[in-house]
């Protein structure tokens, strides 16, 4: 059964193009992907991300349980801090990637991908034992992302606390208008911004308040299309495309989220990841820029360069698009480690046409402010 977020009526009233995504009816775009992408890069945009899932870990064992479930060191967090981390299976493959909020010594919130809510909750329950109380609280939250260089200015105009002073990856309880919220300085666009949670019944009021506050900065409502192009430019992985059960965090370039020192604590999948790091990676996720005409898409095969044709198949594209910011076709894909250095030339089979590509240093885009 397809679900709707609490903002579906607003999306329709705003002429959003509605599509089904991860079991939810969501806006793909409003005025167009290019227009919405540009608004976030230059000023500010607003996204409905209420389809994301929220799993609560509570009780005396909450922090210890969270540490065992994820690869990053939850034990290093202080109250109000957040970290990004993969969740791994016992073999080191990725269950999902998520944000972990330490709200208190016995209160942890994990925000997971919409397509993985039920799977992640079942995995947590299976691995938890009696360490803590686990609750799938996804129906208790609406989530709105305010993103872009002007995001802090817009939120500061309507929040009751100094949101501009919030460090990245921290959370703060605020009131926006008359809506009580949990604001985090996080996002999925490569820009500054906030992801703001509230009760579903308050979502429309929060959305309209933020849209009104953003008018002086030409705020635009944004859909899934711009969310995808923005995150790809910033080399932010998408579960199901760039990472999944067949990939490890080390292969995906997420080694900085994997704490392997014994002093950092144990977690599910640690042993295979220690071994993989010791033996060396056989493949890596790389950034690719197309050097001849053609757009690489998910599933297209990557080949060794062989004159003007396709050489030996060596990998596969996981994500690809035309970058609105760079004005060129870009992609992510896995290739053998010996072909992962920037400057390496490869060929991609784009619907039967050999298209030349070059490995480049990522991310494709990085904000300068």
Question: What is this entry, summarized?
Answer:
The strands form 4 sheets. This protein has a 6-stranded mixed β-sheet. Strands 15-18-17-16-19-20 form a 6-stranded antiparallel barrel. By secondary structure, the protein is an alpha+beta fold. The mean pLDDT is 97.
| CATH uppermost class of the largest domain | Alpha Beta
**How many beta-strand elements?**
20
Query: How much helicity do the residues have?
Result: 10-25%
Alpha-carbon distance between the two ends: 43 Å
How would the global form be characterised? Answer: globular
Q: What spatial order of strands do you see in the largest sheet?
A: 11-12-13-10-4-14
What's the Cα radius of gyration? 21 Å
Instruction: Give the strand content.
Output: 35-45%
**Assembly status:** single chain
What is the element string, with H for helices and E for strands? EHEEHEEHEEEHEEHEEEHEHHEEEEEE
Which superfamily, in CATH terms, is the homologous superfamily of the largest domain? Answer: Probable tRNA modification gtpase trme, domain 1
Largest sheet data = 6 strands, mixed
The CATH level-2 architecture of the largest domain is identified as 2-Layer Sandwich
Domain module tally: 3
Low-confidence stretches: none
Give the count of helical stretches: 8
Helical/strand content category: alpha+beta
């Amino acid at each position: 059964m397809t679900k709707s977020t609490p903002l579906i009526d607003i999306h329709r009233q705003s002429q959003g193009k509605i599509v089904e995504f991860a079991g939810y009816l969501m806006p793909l775009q409003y005025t167009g992907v290019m227009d919405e992408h540009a608004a976030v890069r230059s000023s500010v945009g607003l996204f409905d991300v209420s389809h994301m899932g929220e799993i609560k870990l509570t009780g005396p064992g909450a922090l210890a349980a969270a540490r065992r479930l994820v690869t990053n060191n939850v034990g290093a967090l202080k109250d109000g801090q957040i970290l990004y981390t993969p969740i791994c299976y016992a073999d080191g493959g990725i269950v999902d990637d998520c944000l972990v909020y330490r709200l208190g010594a016995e209160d942890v919130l994990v925000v997971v991908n919409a397509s993985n809510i039920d799977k992640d909750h079942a995995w947590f329950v299976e691995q938890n034992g009696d360490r803590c109380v686990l609750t799938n609280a996804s129906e208790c939250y609406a989530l709105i992302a305010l993103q872009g260089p002007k995001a802090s200015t817009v939120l500061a105009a309507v929040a009751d606390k100094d949101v501009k002073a919030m460090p990245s990856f921290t959370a703060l309880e605020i009131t926006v208008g008359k809506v009580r919220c949990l604001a985090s300085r996080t996002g999925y666009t490569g820009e500054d911004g906030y992801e703001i949670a509230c009760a579903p019944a308050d979502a429309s009021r929060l959305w309209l308040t933020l849209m009104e506050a953003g008018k002086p900065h030409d705020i635009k409502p944004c859909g899934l299309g711009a969310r995808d192009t923005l995150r790809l430019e910033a080399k932010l992985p998408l579960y199901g495309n760039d990472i999944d059960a067949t990939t490890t965090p080390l292969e995906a370039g997420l080694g900085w989220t994997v704490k392997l020192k014994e002093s950092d604590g144990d977690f599910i999948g640690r042993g295979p990841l220690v071994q993989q790091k010791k033996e060396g990676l056989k493949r890596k996720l790389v950034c690719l820029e197309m050097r001849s005409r053609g757009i690489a898409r998910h599933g297209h095969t990557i080949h060794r360069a062989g004159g003007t044709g396709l050489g030996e198949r060596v990998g596969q594209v996981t994500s690809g698009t035309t970058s609105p910011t760079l004005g060129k076709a870009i992609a992510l894909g896995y290739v053998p480690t010996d072909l992962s250095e920037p400057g390496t030339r490869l060929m991609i089979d784009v619907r039967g046409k050999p298209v030349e590509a070059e490995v480049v240093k990522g991310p494709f885009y990085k904000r300068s402010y």
